[in-house]
Amino acid sequence: MKNKTAPVLSAFILTVFFLIACSLFTGPIDATPQPDPYYFEPVTEVLIFEPDSLPAAQAGVLYEAKINITQNVTPLNSVSISNGALPAGLELVQMDGEDAAMIRGIPEESGTYKFTVFAGCVGTMVSGQIGEKEYEIVVTDPAASTAGGLPVSYDNITFEIPLELNSSVSSSKTTDVEFPYINPSNGLMAEHIAFQFTNFPAAGTARLMLFKASEYAAYGQPLQEAVAALLSGADASQPLPDELLQGEFSAQAQPINFKNGHGVRQLTQVLTNFAPITNEELFYYYQGITTDGEYFVSAIFHVNAPFLVSNGSPDAVTPADGIPFGSGTDLDFPAYLSAVTQKLNDAPADSYTPSLLILDRLIESIQIAIQ
pLDDT per residue over 130-143, tens digit each? Predict the structure, then answer.
């Protein structure tokens, strides 16, 4: 008779050994996934190329334009022309230690040149960003230039830079707070077009701006009053609205029309306390509006007068034909301000640097396309 207990016992012993083996060679299950050390985090930010457009150039005249790359997570690694070509005589050079490139050289031939700038960034533990932007450089022939000057066109505004200024511009859309606000508390302005002038004859600000008139007026009470004053005047033949004259000090105030609008220019200086009128702070200020009331033009150009002191330093020397500021009990500020205003008004427009007539020509050349 066979023993039926033996097979059952053997099966039991095998099961026990199997369970022991599993416990010895199988560790606890880790439910937390481990990061892949070779995984590169994708970057979603888009590279921004500034400025939006490049200034015009002249054949045979040195040209420089800087392109900044922003919103990059890692440094700029390479920059090149990926499509089209620069004007002959110009080259694109990456700037050492900066996320930027410079287009420089002397253009050889006039024409309109379209090209695409490619930028790539370093890829270290992230995927290196890349981006492209199409640009255009208009090269004019100085011999073919009109008496007006160098043409500039961006978005819906065109004008000419008088050749006497020997200046160029970069253009962009911005929300920067513009004059007359010095210490703004209203936040950023509505987006507007800004032209920044370079190589300007007088050191300091040289800037032309274009706003939607309704958005400009909504920013603050003084701007609302300026827009309303301009809307009430048909053209430059009418009396100047008081709302357009700047605070305590204004000189050489005159109405100036542009191609499809009108406005007022003046010389002024921001007076935050009893301070002398100086070449460092004196500027040509223009406010204008299109005939249909849709667009507001603002311009601020620093200018110099030969008889003004250079700056407000106590050590600054007043020119022989200038008006001393005085100090202490010798200071009669209202009388000083009146005397300087009269002297500025009496000075010929072309005695300023740059000439007020040249700046007037720039303003008069403005044309704003109605959209």
Answer: 999 999 998 877 65
